[in-house]
Write a structure and sequence with these properties.
The complex is a heterodimer of chains A (605) and B (381). With 605 residues, chain A is α+β, with helices and mostly antiparallel strands. Chain A contains 21 helices and 18 strands. In chain A, helix 13 packs parallel to helix 15. Chain B starts with 12 loop residues before the first helix and ends in a 6-residue tail after the last helix. The chains are: A alpha+beta (605), B mainly alpha (381).
């Protein structure tokens, strides 16, 4: 082809070929190198589904390693929202599950909430959670009828015993507040709603895992991505070993029976709560799964207020049990001496009469033994007035302040802030400001607040505070913050519970202890004493405006090496000696002799 | 004629090597594109890769046979074969079923063939034959119109009767040999101007809607509108291209690795083993792999130009440039579409896309050329 006039055009053609390829290469460079991150994210959004792997919730054991709370399998109904269309047999589905169509619609709407971050109409979403094997069985058989519906297994709480419901608490679905507050939760998750379940939620819940799955363009899951390289397995929650002794706990609830009241038992040397019972209560197994809602509502509406944990939320005047504190503070403040005696005119005494029959004059030990009201009125009066009233009652009020400070150091009148015991109420030891407000700055004197001398009037204490107070006496002057957790399997939980000193001379405690021992041998506790266990105690009978007196008892044993301190409060039954004291002595006896035969009788029934 | 024995020594093995490389890599990616976690073997006939393997082997056999057939056969039989093909193209829509709105497939038992894929080859032959006449001069009116008619006839049949716009567009490739043979450059300039004005008119929405609807099918209009940025519809018409770009872009520099592309494995990109096969390459082999494929193609096309230029007669050279044109047209339209530079036009990427007809068609096209090229040594300059 010599003299080809159009030879140049072959070069043009070559140029076009190279040009096209260069244009494509530039485009590829832009797409794959420059814009890569945005397109890669889009590709991941397309294809990857991050599915939560739920950890198993931590278990709870009692102090002896007895399992109290564990997990049982439950089932969740999952639906793929896209499949819920006109062909879906909504009516049949609702009937199978026993829900109304209204409920069905509401749940669908709730799923689509913007805050439900895991929502996709192509992937299974939790529709109803916490169904038992029985609940699910019918649906399981009919599952093939409902395309887009699947069943997922999860776990729910179960309980070895029916007791300690208030302390253990329950697990329920998270609400909107939880979702807003803590990014850990997603709609349909559950968390501890009350009691220790809530208190130790972050320990118990563990760490969720993630499984990265692939889905195709139709939303059908296609297995794990990169053979699970990006997956992150779930970490099970920490197991808790509680300070409770399940036998003592059960015995306490058994002894309280139908009465309204509470019992708190503490190991004085450690501050460990051995038992904390409140009646009426409920069987924790009934607040699990789907019945939780209705049963909880029933408890909420019950006029006996079973949901109230009376051990930490009921606030009573301590009555005569407070005389132990009065004695100790008065001795420390030199209001009285160890040898001080006061006369008692029995029922004719003023301004407070004595309700017991004993000789006169009485010493401190005798006064405690006989719960002599006049003795403690005189004690309180002399303590507050020991520097006279001074200008503007200032000297008197200074003594009141000092007295109050000592009282507060027994852990009374405020919550145990560093404790893990949930739902505490503070009680009240009235401040100077309180009386200034009520009576005017110069309007109140010792006589005005005479009721305090015998634990009546404005003083309010919770049973937990009563128990802590008697544990402090048992310890001769200090307490360890009362608590419920011994240890957990989480390494962060090597807990050092703080110790608080009353700053009252140990010798004075010996005196009060002697008095309390004599309560059990000669005084109001003598009918239920167990002499060989060296029990110490103090009864209280508290007047109130709701009916019969509240019966209160505090005690500990054995006297020289206290193993258990206990407070019992029973509402509207009468004498502390008759109603509260026997509960405490029976529990102390069982605990100290390790004889639980009485429980077996109950178990066999 | 004693030199006949030397023909096989003159066969261009470089081109054959490039052909085999491209086809093998294509086959590997068809397996990748259809790989669906059930992991049937690459040779399983139930799998597209298995079928393609059969097509590839038969294509090589076919290519080998074509090397044995005297190239003058095509010169002699050209018009007859062309005529037969035109008849077949006309008959096809009437004897076939509607496959996705297209009437271009002939079914023989388990195998479907698309006659249009073979029409390119025969059109190239008659074009070469006509333009190879001794007294041919493209600057004459008649010698411009007749080749045009030879090209337009199958093109119109395929577009109108078989409703295969993409396959029909490929016939524009035959402008390339005409250009090389001296067709006035003004025609190209005028053509380009018409296209530009068309785009402008379309973009500015000057024409009344009824006119456009008459000229274009609704899906064609939509595709053009999406390409011109007049529509933003990631899940509608633009879905394919959008997903295709995501697939390629997410491959990054080195790709996600063979059989690890999520976009393509999980069927976000439709038609990935056929028209969108380049996505799979982009996603799994990244910039490195897709650039390598393009460069390989460039070398292949330049090699074909080289072969075309060394032909000693017009017949062979026109045919060779037809081959260059067809391959270049396919590459440009297909990759341009996958990269979102051109509208969505369903044509295969030669040697890569799944499909026996297309592979066979390109094989025939190429190996007839290789035979001609090998035989050039017997021709006088």
């Amino acid at each position: 082809m010599i003299n080809d006039p159009y030879f140049k055009r072959s070069l043009w053609i070559r140029g076009v070929i190279v040009g096209v390829v260069i244009v494509f290469l530039v485009r590829l460079f832009v797409l794959q190198i420059i814009d890569r991150s945005s397109t890669a994210a889009k590709a991941d959004n397309n294809a990857l589904v991050r599915q939560t792997v739920y950890p198993s919730r931590g278990l709870m054991y009692d102090r002896n390693g007895v399992l109290l709370v564990y997990n049982q399998p439950v089932y969740e109904v999952m639906i793929v929202p896209k499949e819920i269309n006109t062909r879906f047999d909504t009516l049949g589905f609702c009937q199978t599950l026993g829900i109304t169509q209204q409920d069905f619609e509401q749940r669908l709407v709730a799923l689509k909430d913007k805050r439900n971050r895991g929502y996709s109409k192509y992937t299974p979403q939790v529709f109803i959670s916490q169904l038992s094997k029985e609940d699910i069985s019918i649906l399981n058989e009919k599952l093939y009828l409902f395309s887009g519906v699947s069943i997922r297994k999860r776990t729910l709480r179960d309980y070895t015993y029916t007791q300690a419901a208030h302390i253990l608490g329950g697990v329920g679905e998270v609400n909107q507040r939880d979702l807003d507050r803590d990014a850990y939760y997603q709609i349909g998750d559950y968390s501890g709603r009350d009691g220790l379940e809530r208190q130790y939620e972050t320990l118990l819940r563990g760490e969720k895992g993630v499984e990265v799955l692939m889905r195709d363009s139709k939303g059908v899951l296609q297995g794990s991505y990169h053979h699970g390289e990006l997956d992150c397995s779930a970490t099970a929650g920490a197991d808790l070993t509680l300070t409770l002794d399940n036998r003592l706990q059960r015995y306490a609830e058994m002894l309280l029976g139908d009465m309204t009241g509470s019992v708190v038992a503490i190991e004085p040397s450690t501050g460990e709560v051995l038992a904390m019972a409140s009646t009426p209560g409920w069987n924790p197994k009934t607040l699990v799964g789907r019945q939780r809602g209705t049963n909880y509502q029933n408890l909420l509406n019950d006029e006996k207020k079973p949901l109230m944990n009376r051990a930490v939320q009921a606030q009573y005047s301590p009555g005569s049990t407070f005389k132990t504190i009065q004695a100790l503070v008065a001795l420390q403040m030199k209001g009285i001496r160890t040898t001080t005696q006061y006369p008692c005119s029995g029922p004719k005494s003023t301004p407070i009469k004595c309700t017991h029959n004993h000789g006169s004059p009485v010493s401190l030990e005798q006064a405690i033994e006989q719960s002599c009201n006049p003795y403690f009125w005189c004690t309180y009066r002399d303590l507050l007035q020991k520097d006279d009233y001074g200008a503007d009652n200032e000297a008197f009020k200074r003594n009141y302040d000092t007295w109050r400070q000592y009282v507060l150091r027994f852990g009374l009148g405020s919550k145990f802030e560093d404790s893990d015991i949930p739902d505490q109420r503070p009680g009240s030891i009235p401040s100077r400001a309180f009386y200034d407000k009520v009576y005017g700055k110069k309007g109140w004197k010792a006589i005005t607040i005479r009721s305090l001398s015998i634990g009546q009037g404005e003083i309010l204490l919770t049973p937990l505070q009563l128990a802590n107070q008697v544990a402090t006496i048992a310890n001769s002057g200090y307490y360890i913050t009362p608590h419920l957790l011994r240890h957990s399997t989480s390494d962060t939980a090597a807990i050092q519970w703080p110790r608080y000193e009353t700053q009252i001379d140990t010798a004075y405690f010996a005196l009060v202890k002697t008095g309390m021992a004599r309560v059990m041998t000669n005084g109001t506790g003598r009918w239920y004493n167990v002499p060989e266990l060296q029990m110490c105690g103090k009864t209280g009978t508290v007047q109130n405006n709701k009916g019969k007196d509240h019966a209160i008892f505090i005690g500990f044993a054995p006297k020289d090496n206290p193993q258990i301190a206990i407070a019992v409060a029973v509402e509207n039954v009468g004498f502390g000696a008759t109603w509260a004291c026997p509960i405490a002595t029976k529990m102390m006896k069982a605990y100290l002799t390790n004889d639980w035969s009485v429980l077996q009788i109950q178990d066999n029934e | 004629m004693n030199k006949r024995e030397n023909i096989f020594s003159a066969i261009d093995w470089v081109t054959i090597l490039l052909f085999v490389l491209l086809a093998l890599f294509g086959w590997l990616n068809i397996y990748g594109a259809c790989y669906d976690f059930e992991q049937s073997g690459i040779f399983s006939f139930s799998h597209r890769a298995g079928k393609q393997f059969v097509w590839l082997m038969t294509a090589l056999l076919l290519g080998g046979s074509l090397l044995l057939i005297d190239e003058r056969v095509w010169d002699v039989l050209g018009y007859w074969l062309y005529g037969a093909m035109i008849v077949l193209l006309i008959i096809t829509p009437f004897v076939t079923r509607d496959i996705k709105g297209s009437y271009s497939w002939l079914t023989f038992g388990p195998i479907s063939l698309q006659p249009a894929e073979f029409a390119k080859c025969l059109t190239a032959i008659v074009l070469a034959k006509y333009m190879g006449r001794y007294d041919y001069t493209i600057r004459s009116w008649r010698d411009l119109v007749v080749p045009m008619a030879l090209v337009l006839l199958p093109m119109v049949i395929i577009m109108v009767l078989q409703k295969e716009t993409g396959s029909a567009l490929i016939f524009l490739a035959f402008l390339l040999p005409m250009f090389r043979q001296g067709m006035s450059g003004k025609i190209f300039i005028i053509g380009a101007a018409i296209i530009l004005i068309g785009i402008l008119v379309f973009r500015l929405e000057i024409l009344p809607d009824q006119w456009i609807d008459k000229a274009l099918a609704p899906h064609q209009r939509q595709r053009i509108e999406v390409l011109l940025g007049m529509r933003d519809d990631p899940h509608g018409v633009g879905y394919n291209v959008n997903q295709s770009i995501i697939a390629i872009g997410s491959g990054g520099f080195a790709g996600k690795g063979y059989l690890r592309g999520t976009q393509t494995k999980l069927k976000f990109v439709p038609e990935q083993s056929t028209d969108f096969i380049f996505c799979t390459i982009g996603e799994e082999w990244g910039f490195l792999g897709s650039a390598a494929v393009l460069l390989l193609y460039m070398v292949f096309l330049l090699r074909l130009v080289m072969i075309a230029e060394r032909q000693r007669d017009t017949f062979s050279r026109v045919y060779a440039y037809s081959v260059v044109g067809v391959f270049l047209m396919h590459l440009t339209i297909n990759v341009g579409m996958v990269l979102g530079l051109l509208p969505v036009i369903g044509i295969p990427l030669p040697l890569f896309s799944y499909g026996g007809s297309s592979l066979w068609g390109f094989t025939i096209l190429l190996f007839i050329l290789l035979r001609m090229d090998a035989a050039r040594i017997n021709k006088l300059r």
